[in-house]
Amino acid sequence: MKENKKQQKTVDKNGIRPQVREVVRPQIREVIRQHIVVCRNVTREYHTGDVTVQALRGLTLEIPQGEFVILLGPSGSGKSTAVNLIGGLDNPTSGQVMVQGEDISGYNAKRMTEFRRRKLGFVFQFYNLIPTLTAGENVEFALQLVSSGDTKARARELMSLVGLGDRIDHFPSQMSGGQQQRVAIARALANRPPLLLCDEPTGNLDVQTSQQVLQVLQNVQKIEGSTVLLITHNMSIPPMADRVVYIKDGVVDHVDVNENPVPILDLNW
Ligand SMILES: Nc1ncnc2c1ncn2[C@@H]1O[C@H](COP(=O)(O)OP(=O)(O)OP(=O)(O)O)[C@@H](O)[C@H]1O
Ligand SMILES: [Mg+2]
User: Looking at the DSSP assignment, which residues form a beta bridge with residue 46?
Assistant: First the structure.
């Protein structure tokens, strides 16, 4: 409640903080143009009673368009907080979050929803499929929210993309964890998102199933052209990524660029 009041005061009628209209230096404009995600000095504080937690303490991060990027770091280092801010699920306390050149840092709830619908796909550790709908219907339902075309045909296409063309009529309860996660990925692609955010998508899965899910995500990157940003705790996974961002204590500790990413089947688990 208190937070909302504060937010209302600092945004204009379009839900944008006045600072968004500041003059942006040409060098920074170039960085924004070349990267799908740009975070500049982002902080996020949580207030619970008398306790303040600084989840992010000045996160600065640039993610190039079209890459497969992994976010790695100890528990509590701020990975999910960062992904939630990039995905427009939350507002930063200070700093800027830009996605495809759009500064979303000061967006109100309405603009955030609209932004997510245009730009974002989400995959979480838990699949959250609707149990009373078949796999195909789960995907179609998401498609109906964002498009008016032939949603049945597109749902079939997406189910094939995730390697489940023959499971369209199965209910979630009739599928394995890995298969359900792949349905969740197909669903996340309904709006053809330029950016797919995945928070521990293989957290619940065994090695072989994790590899299948990673392969599907890499296909999404290569075939659909989405940029993939994935959080994981699994130290076996980073060699398959184009870029690995190490987060520590709410800031970027360092970034490794893999010139030659390892094929997923060759990862050592
Ligand atoms: N809603 C919240 N209210 C209060 N504190 C929070 C909230 N969300 C996160 N935090 C705190 O912010 C810090 C960063 O949390 P975050 O979830 O981003 O970590 P993480 O790197 O994703 O960890 P994990 O690997 O365990 O998922 C933690 O100290 C956490 O307790
Ligand atoms: Mg987390």
Answer: 53
Q: Angle at CA 151, nearest 5°, toward 145 and 154?
A: 120
**Best CATH choice for the domain 2-266 from the list 2.40.50.140, 3.40.50.300, 3.40.1700.10, 2.40.10.10:** 3.40.50.300
Show the ligand 1 pocket: residues with CB < 6 angstroms: 46, 48, 53, 55, 73, 75-81
Per domain, the residue ranges of the chain are 2-266
E strands, 9-67, in order: 35-48, 51-64
Over residues 95-108, the pLDDT tens digits come to 999 999 999 999 99
CA of 63 to the centre of ligand 1 (A): 22
Digit-coded pLDDT (tens) for 112-137: 999 999 999 999 999 999 999 999 99
Cα(230)–Cα(12) distance, rounded to whole angstroms? 33
Residue 265 and residue 269: Cα distance in Å, rounded? Answer: 10
Q: How close is the Cα of 159 to the center of ligand 1, in Å?
A: 33
- Tokens 């208190």: give the residue: 2
Give the position of tokens 């996974």: 237
Distance of CA 140 to the CA centre of its chain: 21
Q: What is the Cα gyration radius of the chain?
A: 19
What number of other Cβ atoms are within 10 A of residue 146's Cβ? 14
Task: Please answer whether residues 37 and 99 qualify as being in contact, where contact means their C-beta atoms are separated by less than 8 angstroms.
Answer: yes
Q: Comparing C-alpha atoms, which of 45, 47, 42 is closest to residue 105?
A: 42
